Amino acid sequence: MNKTDTTQDPTPEGCFRLDELRDLQSAEGFTLADCNYYLWLNRNEEDPEAAPLRFLYALELIFEEGETLLLSSGEDSEAIRLISEAELVKTAEQLRALQGYLSIQRVNVGTIPLWQPCIGKHLVVRLSRHESGLFLNDALLLDFAGNGILLGLASEGLSVSAYQ
């Protein structure tokens, strides 16, 4: 999916930008082939032996049509945004340079019980409207032939859950 420069974008905070809506709309009807989570690993500097804290930084939907969608909480967890593969790699490289260790981990989740019923099904995206008529970017429903996945914001990162 194409990404555009958003520095001059007049879209109010809390709403999806027009280019993101176009990308979401263009993916509707695509058949889900697989999906990945990109986890942000954050080590405890005070206790290096402790397991790192993990949160869901991005969700990658891979479609049979050869397209992908990368949905991310961003670095501030204030909005769900569509990002490019290049943006994901850049963030991972910046974190590695800053922290001195690999901080973004890809985990394939297409076979876990939450996602398994969605594989091979067509995508419909459902969004909530803002009072201005625009679409809110704090949550969205990914509907795969009645198998709903609710993607929202958590205190850090994204949250993913089944939706009935």
Briefly, what is this?
With 164 residues, this protein is α+β, with helices and mostly antiparallel strands.
Structure overview:
It contains two helices and nine strands. The chain is α+β, with helices and mostly antiparallel strands and 164 residues long. The protein has one domain. A five-stranded antiparallel sheet has the order 4-3-2-1-5. A four-stranded antiparallel sheet has the order 6-7-8-9, with helices on one face.
- Low-pLDDT ranges: 2-6
Q: Strand portion, in percent?
A: 25-35%
Give the count of structural domains: 1
Secondary structural class: alpha+beta
Helix share, percent: 10-25%
Going across the major beta sheet, what is the strand order?
Answer: 4-3-2-1-5
Radius of gyration equals 16 Å
Number of strands: 9
Separation of termini?
A: 28 Å
What are the main properties of this structure?
single chain; 164 residues; alpha+beta; four-stranded antiparallel sheet; 15% helix
Give the topology.
Blueprint: H1 18-27, E1 32-42, E2 53-63, E3 68-72, E4 81-82, H2 85-99, E5 104-108, E6 123-126, E7 139-144, E8 147-153, E9 158-163
Antiparallel strand pairs: 1-2, 1-5, 2-3, 3-4, 6-7, 7-8, 8-9
